[in-house]
């Protein structure tokens, strides 16, 4: 079905809208809001886009390259708008991206899954540039949208951006994890940053039967998955399935506390136990956009991992670190050569490699389920991941 776009939509924006409609990321009922709230009104003059060929973020500057800037704005890519919590200046990228305008496909697919309709009230955690809040306000009315931004320098900019398109949702500079009780109850809560814990305040501020849509994950995986939770009648629990793997900046107080490798492993292998071997390969652990790291994290949530290559790129080593004690594990495989047996090195009170392998075995035994078969139940401060139904929790590898 061909969906007509509103008159006045410029060519580049129309092309992007067509892509979003054709892929199903954007539903037709969101097309008028997308046209009325152009992304270009929310992207600052200096932003950063990821360059696949260079393998790094590069600046797109409206002042020096207006055509390049506009092309980036209307591309289906995320654009970084802040580095290092605002402590970075200049055109070169900083160390850690800390605010952005998300990929349009992701923005629209999450708004689709939020399942809004006229009359509903929405709380957004993570205002950023204000584009997402603007789309919601255009669809529902400004009085129906409250958005919270943790960075006090970003919130007023978002307010200005929204005013540019005639929208006035309530923008709060504060901690999104506390919600905004003054505006409660909400029919929907949406988060635009990655979480390790869904705040209990959100349950209490959402109407029974309301929806919380948020990227959630563990410290083990680089990626999160969007979870669509339905709040129970008592407002003390919520449950629902994951919808898709995503890459989001993490809540500032929930970033992964990566251990200092030289402190954890002063010399390798040192006195680590090397009596065990694995027939698993580096590929079995999964890449950044594979489901395996996310699934391992569901079973081993208090650990993290990285893959490293030696200087000559002849071998790959998987490192797993506990975040609760001094335990670590490692296995190394030669690059480009079949390997059926690799030595596993483990140190500390936990057998981390066994935890990873047992989880992969469990995943294999259940026919390698995709992300949408998994779900999450939260109750007060407890988060329980499950497969297919809440009655089948993912076995925890403690």
TrEMBL record:
GO annotations of cellular component type: cytoplasm
Keywords from the named record: Cytoplasm, Methyltransferase, S-adenosyl-L-methionine, Transferase
Domain of life: Bacteria
Predominant location category: cytoplasm
One Pfam family cited in the UniProt record for this chain: PCMT
GO biological process, one term: methylation
Claim: Cytoplasm is one of the keywords in the record: yes
Location of this chain's protein in the cell: Cytoplasm
EC number(s) stated in the UniProt entry for this protein: 2.1.1.77
Any one GO molecular function term: protein-L-isoaspartate (D-aspartate) O-methyltransferase activity
InterPro entries in UniProt: PCMT, SAM-dependent_MTases_sf
Class of this enzyme: transferase
Family: Belongs to the methyltransferase superfamily. L-isoaspartyl/D-aspartyl protein methyltransferase family.
Protein name: Protein-L-isoaspartate O-methyltransferase
Organism: Kitasatospora kifunensis
């Amino acid at each position: 079905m061909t969906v007509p776009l509103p008159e006045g939509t410029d060519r580049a924006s129309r092309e992007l809208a067509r892509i979003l409609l054709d892929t199903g990321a954007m539903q037709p009922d969101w097309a008028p809001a997308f046209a009325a709230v152009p992304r270009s009104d929310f992207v600052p003059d200096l932003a950063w886009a990821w360059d696949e060929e260079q393998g790094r973020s590069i600046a797109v500057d409206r002042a020096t390259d207006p055509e390049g800037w506009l092309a980036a704005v209307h591309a289906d890519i995320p654009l970084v708008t802040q580095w290092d919590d605002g402590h970075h200046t200049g055109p070169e990228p900083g160390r850690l991206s800390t605010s952005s305008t998300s990929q349009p496909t992701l923005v629209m697919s999450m708004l689709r899954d939020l399942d809004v309709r006229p009359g509903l009230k929405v709380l957004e955690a993570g205002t950023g540039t204000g584009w997402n809040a603007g789309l919601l306000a255009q669809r529902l009315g400004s009085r129906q949208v409250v958005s919270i931004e943790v960075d006090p320098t970003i919130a007023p900019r978002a307010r200005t951006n929204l005013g540019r398109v005639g929208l006035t949702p309530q923008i709060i500079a504060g901690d999104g994890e506390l919600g905004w009780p003054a505006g409660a109850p909400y029919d929907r809560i949406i988060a635009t940053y990655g979480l390790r814990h869904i705040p209990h305040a959100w349950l209490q501020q959402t109407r029974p039967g309301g929806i919380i849509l948020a990227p959630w994950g563990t410290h083990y995986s680089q990626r999160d998955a969007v979870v669509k939770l339905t709040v129970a009648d008592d407002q003390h629990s919520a449950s629902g399935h994951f919808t898709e793997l995503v890459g989001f900046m993490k809540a500032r107080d929930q970033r992964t506390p990566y251990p200092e490798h030289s402190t954890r492993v002063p010399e390798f292998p040192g006195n680590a136990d090397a009596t065990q071997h694995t027939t698993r390969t580096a590929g079995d652990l999964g890449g950044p956009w594979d489901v395996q790291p996310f699934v391992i994290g569901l079973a081993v949530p208090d650990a993290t991992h990285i893959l490293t290559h030696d200087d000559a790129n002849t071998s790959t080593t998987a490192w797993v670190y506990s975040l609760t004690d001094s335990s670590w594990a490692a296995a190394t495989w030669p690059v480009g050569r079949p390997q059926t047996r690799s030595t596993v090195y483990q140190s500390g009170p936990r057998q981390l490699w066994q935890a990873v392998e047992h989880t992969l075995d469990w995943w294999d035994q259940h026919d390698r389920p995709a992300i949408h078969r998994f779900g999450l139940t939260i109750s007060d401060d407890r988060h329980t991941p499950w497969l297919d139904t809440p009655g089948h929790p993912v076995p925890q590898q403690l």
